[in-house]
Specification:
Blueprint lengths: L1 H57 L7 H8 L13 E10 L10 E10 L53 E10 L14 E7 L1
Antiparallel strand pairs: 1-2, 1-3, 3-4
Length: 201
Amino acid sequence: MRPIRHLLRNNRGNAFVELALTLPVLTLMLFGVITGGLVFDRYMTVVQLCRNAAGMMARGANFALATNKQLLLTGQNLEITANGGNGVIYLTRVTVAPPGTANEGEIVIAERHVIGNPNFRPSVLGSPASAIWPNPDKPAPTGDVKDFNEEPSAVANVPAALSTLPLGESMYVAEIYHSAESIRFGRAWRDPLQMSSVTYF
């Protein structure tokens, strides 16, 4: 009986040692799974908000109005506010410059709205010069671009696959750039985790 009891004591001791060795690893894995889930959920929110924004603009929503900006941001939980916060939303209408204009055949930015922090990241489409956007000849608030068929800074940087937009038609582009830094555990990531989504409508 004594050898058996001695063996059981040794096994118990080994179990405690094994638990002590594996517990930190299991804890890190648990935090990794939780963090991954939170990041994925945040990314899906970004994608859905981007689609909603493009759809609203295509249906005629005027995002120069503060009420429409707040409507878009309602329930998004991304820490983006109308004029600041932890990210930025660019809403852009592009069209093709007609023949006889300086930008003939180019896709140009005809309208642009910015929600959030414009210093967070620039738009991939480019930005019209401050002298032509917002259009100084129109009453504020407005997102219209002045002389977009003539001004070089109004030419948009669009993917080649989308450069065949028919003359006279418009395309609506929503871009969202967001930092998920608020869901980090301590200093698990030294650089803020950034995510983005672009929707062409």
